Amino acid sequence: MKNWEAMEAFVEVVRQGSFSAAAIKLSVSASHISRLITQLEAELGTTLLFRTTRRIRLSEAGELYYQHCRGLPEALSSAEEVISTLNQAPIGSFKLTCATTFGERYIAPLMNDFLLNHPKIELDFHLTNRSVDLIEEGYDLAIRMGAMKDSSHLSRRLCDRVEYLCASREYIDQHGMPHTLAELNKHRCLIGSKSHWLFQQDGQRKEVKVSSQWRSNSGLALLDAVRKGLGIAQLPDYYVSDDLASGQLIPLLTQYQYPYSGVWLVYPKVRQSSPKLQSICDYLIQRFKQDPPFAK
């Protein structure tokens, strides 16, 4: 396939940020990578990469070429997988990412069960609250919360979740309870990785921007702060359902509570025909339907 090896080398150099790192990823020498890029530039009649001793930088033509090529290695891998796995069990590497706590509590146990029945799957499971670039970082599947904003990917709904605004009894005794959304700016608001809270007002979705002197990208740290009376926070049901049921935390502004938001299985369009991906998505959705792991 004309220029395929060179194109793959070029994409990996951009992803890894250096010739040597790309060479390691592709199991070839750095000099071989350099020759492929030089040949590709000669074929195209333009410079794709500006090289210095410390870094590489895309030219305007290189940026354009990369945007058109960045998903092709995964598309080829997916096409090969479709053929190779006909009438076979899922096999090969699978890279998955999920928010840390949700992944630890719910996804990891299910995926471990899946692997018991599919031992030829090589799982690379990354837990992070950072929104990763699926194509750039080579992920097959991401599990994401809330509204889907990236139309360049495909998604399937895994389950619903409810977010609760809540505080401890100690905080309410000292500072009172807000009765309207406008009163939130008079309270100590504790925020996680987002600075907007989600509500419903007059039947419409409403996002309220909150400011805070306390912020963390850890849901467990946020939960601990709320339990200790440091302020008010909005947290998903899988963090606070037990505390709300026991009375340790008190729900607030329930008249404005948004009914539910989604948890989504998100994957690149180039991976949609992958039997391995579809098998894992079907499995996760079925398990969540059979045994919902947290109360709605």
UniProtKB/TrEMBL annotation:
Keyword hit for tRNA processing: no
Gene3D superfamilies in the cross-refs: 3.40.190.290, Winged helix-like DNA-binding domain superfamily/Winged helix DNA-binding domain (1.10.10.10)
GO aspect biological process, one term: DNA-templated transcription
A matching Pfam family: LysR_substrate
Keywords attached to this entry: DNA-binding, Transcription, Transcription regulation
GO molecular function annotations of the record: DNA-binding transcription factor activity; sequence-specific DNA binding
Residues of the HTH lysR-type domain: 1-59
Record PANTHER family: HTH-TYPE TRANSCRIPTIONAL REGULATOR (PTHR30537), TRANSCRIPTIONAL REGULATOR-RELATED (PTHR30537:SF10)
Family: Belongs to the LysR transcriptional regulatory family.
Identification of the protein by name: LysR family transcriptional regulator
Organism in which the protein naturally occurs: Marinomonas hwangdonensis
